[in-house]
Amino acid sequence: MKTNRWRNRILWMAFLVCLVLIFCLTAFHRPILNGKESESSSDQKHKVVFIAKSTVSGFWKSVYAGASNAATACNLDLTFEGPKNEEDYETQNQMIAKAVEDGAEVIIFSAVDYEANADAINDAAGKGVKVVVIDSDVDSDAVSCRIGTDNYDAGCKAAEAAMKDENEEIHIGIVNYDKNSDNGQKREEGFRDSILRDGRAGIDAVINVLSDTENAKKRTKKMLKKHPKINVIVTFNEWTTLGVGYAIQELGLKDNVRVVAFDSNVVSVGMLETGEVDTLIVQNSYAMGYLGVETAYKLINGYSIKDTIYTDTIAVDKENMYDEECQRRLFAFEKSNKN
Questions:
Q1: pTM score of the predicted model
Q2: Residue 76: CB partners within 8 Å, gap ≥ 6?
Q3: Which residues, including other chains, have CB under 8 Å from residue 8's CB and lie 6 or more apart?
Q4: Per-chain mean pLDDT for the chain
C-alpha cells in the first residue's frame, strides 16, 4: 500500500512539472517566421516622421539635435526631413503623404504655409496618424499638440529691445518673411502692439521678403535707401536676420541703425559681436525638438498630453551674450554635438 501511495505521489508530481513546462513553453516561445525569429512587441520601434520647414539652418539643426536625443531616450524610429528652402510647402505636402504611406504613427510638423499645408495634414489625420506641430502652426483642428515659442510674446520682447534706442524719434523698418507663415505674423503683431505704446516710435516701412538671406539683403538695402530716416530695423527669423545684417554691413550703417533680430547661428552671433545686429531674440529650438518627440511617444502610448506647450525665448545683446545661459542658448546645436 505504501509503495502504491509513493508511486501515485511521484506520478502526480511529474504531472505538475509537465504542466509547468508546457506553460513556460507557451508563454515564452517566440515563433519562427520565414526562417527568422519574429521580434517581440518590446523590440519593435514605433515610427515617427518629423517634417521641418528646412534642415540646413542652425535653428533646425538644433531642433534635430533635441529630437534625435529624445528619439534615443524613447526608443523611437525617427525620420527627420524637410524641403531645401522655407518656401516650399508643396514638397512638405508630398512628404506628409509619403510618411502616411510608410506607416508613420505620428507626424511632427512645422508648416511652411498655414493654409496650404492644411489639407495634407487633415488627410494624414483622417488615416489615423497623430499630428504634433512645432514652431509654425497649420490651419487644422486635427493637431493633437502645438509646441513652440509664444510668438506674440516674442514680438513684444523684440519691441522692448527696440525701445532701448536712445534717439528722440524712432523710425522703424519691419522686415518680415512669408505672409502665410503663422509665427512671423504673430511676432509682428506683438511687436506692433507694444512699439506703438511709446510716443517716440513710428513705423516708416514694412516689407515681406522670401525666407532667404540674399533676397532679404537686397530688399532691406532698397528699403533703407527709400526711407533714410529709419534708425531701427526688426526682423523675425534666421535667414532674414542674416540678410538684414549683411545689408547694414555693406551700407556701413551699424552705428546709425539699431537691429533687433531673431534666432542665432555662428554668423549672426558674429554680427552681434561686431555691431551689425544689436539684439537677438533667441528661441529654445533644442527644447522644441525634444518635446515634439517626447509628445509623440506619449501619444503612441496613450498618455495624456497638453494641447499647447510654450518654450521660452531670451533677448541676447552685447551686455549679456557671454553669460552662461546665453552661451548655452546661442550654441545649443554645437554643444549637443559634443555630448
A1: 0.81
A2: 45, 46, 47, 48, 70, 293, 296, 297, 300
A3: none
A4: 88
